[in-house]
Each structure stands twice: as C-alpha cells, then as structure tokens.
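User: Could you check the structure of this?
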Amino acid sequence: MDMNNMTNNQDSKYQSYIKRAWAFYALITIALIVILVLFVAQDNEERFFFTIMPVAAAYVFRPTNRYLGKLIFKFTGVSQPSENE
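Assistant: Sure, the predicted structure tokens are below.
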C-alpha cells in the first residue's frame, strides 16, 4: 500500500472522529438544556436563563483540539495529522 494513501486514510479517519466528537459534545449540551428547561425551570425567566447559560458555558469551556486529539488517540488509536503540510 502506498504510504501517501495510508496518510490520507489516517487523516480522513481523524477528521471523521473530530466531527463525531463535536457532534457528541453538541448533543450533550442540547440534552442538558432540555433537562434544565423541562424539569428544573419553574418560570419563564428561569427557562430563558437555562436555555442561554448552558450554551455560553459550553462555548467557554469547550475542549481544545489538542485535548480532543489525545482522547481520539486514546480510544481509537488514530493520531492527529502533522501540521507541517
């Protein structure tokens, strides 16, 4: 197998896993919002607060690509592509 082809395959796998990780992060955030709005909030003001604040917190505390790359490598064995292309 060609070495360049293996590298491209590894890069595409990594990009696929990164997209899945961000989708999973977004779904967790949405699930948290739904739980807070439906089961915790008692009035409209709290519903608004519990809709806006988890999104802001998820943005502020979002994982870095370096951290996601380490987790992807840990769980799948696919390493982050090199930056010197």
